[in-house]
Amino acid sequence: MYSISTVNHFVRVPTVCRYYCTRIFSPYFQAMQEITLQVQNALGKVAHILESIGNVFNFSVPFLSWLALFILTVATILLYLVPLRWEA
Predict the structure, then answer these.
(1) pLDDT tens track of the chain, all 88 residues?
(2) By the 8 A CB rule, do 56 and 65 touch?
(3) Domain boundaries, the chain
(4) 44 with 52: CB under 8 angstroms?
């Protein structure tokens, strides 16, 4: 099949490739890790905000839900009574 020198040649290639590949691609892998970590954190924040909004409308925390409903009602009444167009 293979001679001993051919087998040894195949054994040495991954070691050399691993050394040069890690030196060449290491900055790219590190940059990819940082980018994926930032994306994961951003998606976590978005999920937290959306979950908090959903909990307000589900009345999961009744005090905060009633407070949000009261503020929304007061804002609606104020916007109805206060004219936004000033006529001179």
Answers:
(1) 555 555 555 555 556 666 666 677 778 888 889 999 999 999 999 999 999 888 877 888 888 889 989 999 999 999 999 888 777 6
(2) yes
(3) 4-81
(4) no
Q: Which residue has the tokens 């890790």?
A: 33
Spatial contact of 56 and 64, defined as CB atoms under 8 Å apart: yes
Output DSSP code: residue 87: P
State both tokens at 80: 């109805």
> How far is it, in rounded angstroms, from Cα 36 to Cα 26?
15
Full-prediction pTM beyond 0.85? Answer: no
Which of 13-35 are b and which e, b meaning 16 or more Cβ less than 10 Å from the residue's Cβ?
eeeeeeeeeeeeeeeeeeeeeee
